[in-house]
Write the structure tokens for this entry.
Amino acid sequence: MSRDEIFVEVVDLACAVEPRVVRQAVRLDDTPFTAYGITSMSMLQLTARVEDRFAVRISDGEALRAGTPLRLVGLIAQKLRTVARS
């Protein structure tokens, strides 16, 4: 799965978790999720949905450190590569 495909899925999940997120405004960059209306609680909910959608495990600490779309997509891509190798 490409980074762009992961990004589209993450944006869909973010919009499902937090209705205030404007899909067209979210960019694959280091803009913090908080700028899009995602709170720390919403971030944990988003992480749970990401884990379900991509069948990966992300710790709460990893989720909070991955506080931007670019970082979260990178983390998911890394986890998917690790799963593919095992």
